[in-house]
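Components:
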Amino acid sequence: MHPIITVSHLEKTYRGGFHALKDINLEIRKGEIFALLGPNGAGKTTLISTICGLVNPTSGSVSVDGHDIIADYRAARSLIGLVPQELTTDAFETVWATVSFSRGLFGQKPAPAHIETVLRQLSLWDKKDSRIITLSGGMKRRVMIAKALSHEPQILFLDEPTAGVDVELRRDMWELVRQLRATGVTIILTTHYIQEAQEMADRVGVINRGEIILVENKAELMRKLGRKRLILDLQKELDGVPDELNGYGLEIADEGRQLIYTYDSQAERTGITTLLKVLNETGVRVKDLNTTQSSLEEIFVNLVKKTA
Amino acid sequence: MNFQAVKSIYRFEMSRFGRTLWQSIVAPVVSTALYFVVFGSAIGSRIAEIDGISYGAFIVPGLIMLNLLMQSISNASFGIYFPKFTGTIYEVMSAPVSFFEIVLGYAGAAATKAIILGLIILATAALFVPLHIAHPFWMALFLVLTAITFSLFGLIIGIWADNFEKLQFVPLLVVSPLVFLGGSFYSIHMLPPFWQTVTLFNPVVYLISGFRWSFYEIADVSLGTSLAMIAVFLVLCIATIWWIFKTGYRLKT
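Structure:
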């Protein structure tokens, strides 16, 4: 698929010497939802801020739909909407005024109908004449999204969009992101809620200590790196793992009523057949069994640990 | 040219002016009226005419300049500092706008506010003292050029300042003394020769002198020198702002 953002050999070293981005190479595909994961201080916000023009890169290049973010910054920036991590709003402005201001700032002529649509989508229409200072934190977050959408961007950056918001608003935002993607908007989000990435992303990038350590299709990532667990419900409780089963790395759970076998689902031999055979031979009777896939969170934690 | 962006910034700043109308207009007008009561009527009646002009009328250009300078600086510096302080500056910095357009929006609004205030003070002065404007065109030119130049200076202060103390420091501790010592309330020819020479290093002298000339055709320095000094300061401010936006000084990391 055609990349809408291309990051090439991007480096950022802050004045104090902190090397925040190290030779970042990344392509974001048009129309996808890309989740950028990483622990605190990994470089997520620096990367987004650099693409959006808030941070000067030390070296390397970024192009947005073929427009260099420095040489052709007008064309590049006009395609982007940014929702930053911090709740920063014009406290004394009304919702309508601040959203209209954002649209004008991006060179777009006033379009009350579009602003109304955005405000209705974000359940802000009733608050359009309210001053922002009177709104709750969740509502302010919605205002920031409305501002970013006011100029009809082709690319939307959401930096920790659901940090500190309640479950209902989080669900609303996920729904909004899906609706935007359906209209062809490319969405790049950073999040601490791995569940968010798992729920929404098409592809996942993991950044740690300023380096992209992995970019993968989410389903593929979970398939490749996901370990599966076979959970065996036993007819009789066990005091411990029988000696005959020592080589399988089994865990006992549920006070001896379960045996858990962890295996690589991609391996040529998973060992399940022989395990079941040995269980039968040793007289361990199985009442039920099921398998579970590792969550993206477990995958992420393992990846970050490996590169730490 | 992103005219929509310039218009948006300008309108945004002007609407802030509307919200703070009381402190923006009423307070300076009241304090100026007090100057006329004290210096024009009470003390002024005991001061001899200066170059044939009553003392109350003599101080009008200086008072307008005092307010024009302070308002230009404070409007522009606050206009850019507040978004920096709250963090909303991210939006301007990530928008498809050039430094020229940002400056045009912020400094244009600050200068407009200062000019409106200057004209209101002029009208207020007319209620207290007989006014005569010999060269309205030059008066307007000095008013506009000074407002623009000091709005640019205010932008520099607003970008440089990283706390409210610094924001107040330059207007209160630098500009205010320069205005008071720059011939707002006296002709520099009334000073001893040594202090006349020292005063010539004060840039505000040239602004007030030129502005007063446009009213009464009396000046401490020549009109050409006054215009040249404003031009020099204007160019210095533009060059500094150009450098700030080129390097991202205190605006980008």
